[in-house]
Amino acid sequence: MRVVCAVVLIFEVIVIGLFIPVAISLEGMDPALAGGLWGGMAAAALVLAGLQKYRWAHYAAWVLQAAFLFSSFLVSGAMLIAVVFVSLWVTGVIMGRRTDQMKAAHLARARAEEEAEAENAVSASSGS
């Protein structure tokens, strides 16, 4: 799950960063405000992408998704892009959890088979 979430965050860095020139040119927003708002979110997304192995970073990325969604109200047309990326995030979390569960079940099954084989080898060698 964490790998998928990190990939979504990396793509978000690019998209969030592109909000800056759009907000300045189309909405007439102050460059300092646009750069601070979306530049800060892009930097946070980049840092959180690298820290997805930590539980707190995963939850912080959820907060970032909410901030991204709410800040998209400031730029016309940005809401659609924000909704797409938040949807990708939610889908990544859901599919990532399913994949993690399948990997864990496969690993448990493989360990059980190894233990059974080792047990059979021990009983076969002691029976000889």
UniProtKB/TrEMBL annotation:
InterPro entries: DUF4233. The chain crosses the membrane at residues 7-26, 32-51, 63-90. It comes from the Bacteria. The keyword Transmembrane applies. Keywords: Membrane, Transmembrane, Transmembrane helix. It holds the Pfam family DUF4233. This is DUF4233 domain-containing protein. It comes from Nocardiopsis lambiniae.
